[in-house]
Amino acid sequence: MTISYNSSLQKATFFLTGFQGLEDLHGWISIPFCFIYLTVIVGNLTILHVIRTDVTLHEPMYYFLAMLALTDLGLCLSTLPTVLGIFWFDAREIGIPACFTQLFFIHTLSLVESSVLLSMSIDRYVAICNPLRYSTVLTPTRIVKMGLSSMLRSALLILPLPFLLKRFQYCRSHVLAHAYCLHLEIMKLACSSIIVNHIYGLFVVACTVGLDSLFIFLSYALILRTVLSIASRQERLRALNTCVSHICAVLLFYIPMIGLSLVHRFGEHLPRIVHLLMSYVYLLVPPLMNPIVYSIKTKQIRIRIAKKFEFVKAFRGFR
């Protein structure tokens, strides 16, 4: 199949793909996806509600956690319409403007998540390595600036991508391999040279995820050095325990990303379903697991959520 690219952008379309060859089972396949999306939405909204309504959680660590929950929620909602649209209604066709808009939000929010994880590592570094200055370094104003700078950096770096793709003519197959739009996949459908897109894509990854991961590693190297200098074993464990949730969030973000990159680069011989599953793991597992990890490993969050459920049960019993 080919696409003739008209001057009117709205007339050009791509076709999204679910689980090819399993179209008859899309109704059943949608059940676990619905459960995942529902869990992501409920879990992250619960985290946001608990932090907003409990004044004892109005601290830097929980503000950053709220940023992470908002980012995960946005990332989930950016793929939900097309993924469930394919499974429920076989709605495979997507206009290029809509496709580029989805692409912008998916990539922007992925970079924002990387930035938020870096901010959270800075929070843990200051709390452990310089606790006396914690409240003066991470003031509400500075936290807001960190959040806004993360969003601005990500949006400005991703903004050129739709325009770089817009200049192409797409004369090859216009069937995408996933149920959502990604830059790497769309640019491969172009007829002309994509070297500029390749170079700019690598530049964006190096400036964001590359630098963020480096600074996260350095912050934890400094944290570990400080913790090892503490005489009391109990205090060392207590200090490290405050980092467990964040370390899990970092691993949940970077491991699927590295796995997806390896599959795309070296896994051409692997079945197509492996590529599909890895892409869904990359986009859905962090938003799904982050609220669960923080609810289990962060005592304050766990206690507040339990109190909310107790209140709901008591209210129902009263009625």
UniProtKB/TrEMBL annotation:
Q: Report whether Cell membrane shows up as a keyword of the record.
A: yes
Q: What InterPro entries does the annotation carry? A: GPCR_Rhodpsn, GPCR_Rhodpsn_7TM, Olfact_rcpt, OR51/52/56-like
**Principal localization?**
membrane
Gene Ontology terms: biological process: cellular response to lipid
Q: Where in the cell is it found?
A: Cell membrane; Membrane
Q: Where are the transmembrane segments?
A: 28-51, 63-88, 94-122, 143-165, 199-223, 244-267, 273-294
Q: Which GO CC terms are listed, alphabetically?
A: plasma membrane
Query: What PROSITE patterns does the record tag this protein with?
Result: G_PROTEIN_RECEP_F1_1, G_PROTEIN_RECEP_F1_2
Entry keyword set: Cell membrane, G-protein coupled receptor, Membrane, Olfaction, Receptor, Sensory transduction, Transducer, Transmembrane, Transmembrane helix
Kindly give the membrane topology term recorded for this protein.
Multi-pass membrane protein
Q: Which CDD domains match?
A: 7tmA_OR51-like
Pfam families in the cross-refs: 7tm_4
Where does the record place the G-protein coupled receptors family 1 profile domain? 43-294
What terms describe the molecular function in GO for this protein? G protein-coupled receptor activity; olfactory receptor activity
Tell me the protein family, please: Belongs to the G-protein coupled receptor 1 family.
What is the recorded function of this protein according to its Swiss-Prot or TrEMBL entry? Putative odorant or sperm cell receptor.
Q: Which PANTHER family match?
A: OLFACTORY RECEPTOR 51G1, OLFACTORY RECEPTOR 56B1-RELATED
What is the name attached to this protein's record? Olfactory receptor
Q: Which organism is it from?
A: Mustela putorius furo (European domestic ferret)
- Gene name? LOC101681269
